[in-house]
Amino acid sequence: MEYILAFITGGFICVIGQILIDKTSLTPARILTGFTVAGVILTALGLYQPLVDFAGQGATVPISGFGYLMATGVEKAVKESGALGILTGAFTAAAGGIGAAVTGSVIAGLLSRSKEK
């Protein structure tokens, strides 16, 4: 049942993004930024954690989950280091994912060839 809830929740978040792409003049970059900011705001309001508890990875894998990750990282860092955690918490929490994305991009760039259009 966990897999079904994760699939439905993650799919619903993606459907919202697709509707925004199809029905508005927003660029995909603005939509992604909006989802990230929405994840931060919903986490700050205490509304994203119940969604994570309900849907698990279905709520943390989409881009809104990145905002949730950054917000929880800042919250934890502020509790541990005070005001300095505002500057370091998001980077510390997201370092693994960002590092994996950069490493994967470098490997893909080394293994592929660019083509003229």
Q: What's this model, at a glance?
A:
The chain has 117 residues and is mainly alpha-helical. The protein is 84% helix and 0% strand.
Pairing-aware structural class of the strands and helices? mainly alpha
- Unreliable stretches, pLDDT < 50, 5 or more residues? none
The biggest sheet, with number of strands, parallel, antiparallel or mixed sense and barrel status, is:
none
Q: Over the alpha carbons, how many angstroms does the gyration radius reach? A: 17 Å
Distance between the termini: 46 Å
Shape: globular
Count of individual beta strands: 0
- Could you give the order of the helices and strands? HHHHHH
Report the β-strand fraction as a percent range: under 5%
Portion of residues within helices? over 70%
Number of helices: 6
Q: What value does the average pLDDT take?
A: 89
Multimer state? single chain
What does this structure look like?
This protein is mostly helical. 84% of the residues lie in helices and 0% in strands. It is built from six helices and no strands. The chain has helices at 2-23, 28-44, 48-55, 57-60, 63-81, 84-111. Helix 2 (28-44) crosses helix 5 and helix 5 (63-81) crosses helix 6 (84-111). The model has no long low-confidence stretch (mean pLDDT 89).
Short descriptors:
117 residues, globular, mainly alpha
Give the topology, please.
Layout: H1 2-23, H2 28-44, H3 48-55, H4 57-60, H5 63-81, H6 84-111
